[in-house]
Amino acid sequence: MAQSALFKPPRFSTMRVRVLSGLALAALVAGTIGPLLLPIDGMGGVMTMTRVLGWALAAAVAVGSPGWRYVAPGELDERERAERARAVVIGHRVTGISICLAYIWLLLAAPGRLWLPNMHEAGWLMAMLFWVHVMVPAVILAWRDRAEEE
Amino acid sequence: MMNNETSTLHNRLALFRAEAGLSRKELAEQVGVNPQTIGFLERGQYGPSLELGLKLARVFGVSVETLFSLEPFAPLAASLAAPRLVEGGR
After folding, report:
1. Between B16 and A115, the higher pLDDT residue
2. Range with the lowest mean pLDDT among A79-83, A109-113, B26-30?
3. Which of A27, A40, A48, A139 is packed most tightly, with the most Cβ within 10 A?
4. Domains defined for chain B, CATH in brackets
């Protein structure tokens, strides 16, 4: 109990989580997938900054919403706890399916017939997967949330 | 009571809240939940725990069966008209 009194996690508004997560996703996709599809230097300053911006925004979403992060006792009511549990389960499924698809791609690509990322690109993709995984519960909670008329 | 979205629980929470002149925020404060949770309950999108159901019933001074039911409640107009029909038939 003393610990919960010392640390009170921040709580962003629904709209802020929606906006930040949208920006984070855009920055992650632009900074990670962009250099893989387009003739852009992924190691360049702009792309590196874009990725770092995406990671920072995703971290802000994860910290500012009771999705993936620690939840203080009494912070959520029973419906919110149930919704959070459901959102975390969905997040784990999304990540699990993504890892499975990546593994299947690796198996198929091994003989050299398909594209494979180099070491740097693999690192960017892993980072994007991690930050999306961290954000998904907060995003689900934010889009499930609705402002009451009163 | 089930804590899920597909709950088949019916309730007259909105009716009792309106009659008591309470806002969702005021009711939420009395039972210790987020005001949005009252909205979810009223729309039937969330089935409360037994504890929350009892707390809500206590606020309105009624039994939990008066507030919640597994069967749909009769429309208010039908409930009000029934005694009149009986009286008119006598």
Report:
1. B16
2. A109-113
3. A139
4. 10-89 (1.10.260.40)
Chain B residues with beta carbon closer than 8 angstroms to that of A148: 24, 35-36, 38-39
Query: What is the three-class DSSP state of A44?
Result: coil
CB B64 within 8 A of CB B57: yes
Domain-wise residue ranges, chain A: 12-144
Is residue A2 very low, low, confident or very high in pLDDT (cuts 50, 70, 90)? very low
Average pLDDT across chain B, whole number: 84
> Tokens 């007259």 label which residue?
B12
- Give tens-digit pLDDT for B30-45: 999 999 899 999 998 8
DSSP per-residue string spanning chain B: ---STT---EE-HHHHHHHHT--HHHHHHHHTS-HHHHHHHHTTS-PPPHHHHHHHHHHHTS-HHHHEESSPPPPHHHHHHHHHHHHHH-
Distance to chain A for B76, nearest Cα, Å: 24
Element (H, E) at A69: none
